[in-house]
Amino acid sequence: MASHDQSYTAGETKERTQEKMENTMDDVKGRAEDAKEKARESKDSTGSYLRDKTDAAKQKTSDTTEAAKQKASDTTQAAKEKAEAGKEKTGSLLQQTGEKVRSVARGTADAVKSTFGMATDEDDKPTSGRD
């Protein structure tokens, strides 16, 4: 009978050991699934963080580029306006200089004609109206 009791006890021990092993395996599987899920969440969180940072960097770059374009446009416009004003001033100055040269030339021609007696009645009239 001893061998029968020993067989029975060995069988019970084997069942308990198998049960404990299954419980341990289930526990390990559960922990592995939890770790896997946590890793997935961490990955998603990291990806989201990096995506947000990348988007922020893109936006900042875009804003900086737009500001540079606007500044260049403003500078170009100011230079264009200054050049136009300079052109108008130069044109006016040249016109005034031309009129002065013409007036001096007329006066000189009238003086030479008068000196050599070549002046006509029309040349003897004051030249202030011709200027």
UniProtKB/TrEMBL annotation:
Gene3D superfamilies (UniProt xref): Apolipoprotein
Disordered, as annotated region: 1-131
Stored InterPro entries: LEA1/2/D7/KIN2
Record's compositionally biased regions (Polar residues): 1-10
Regions crossing the membrane: none
Basic and acidic residues: bias regions: 12-72, 79-90
Superkingdom, natural source: Eukaryota
Protein name: Uncharacterized protein
Organism, scientific name: Stephania japonica
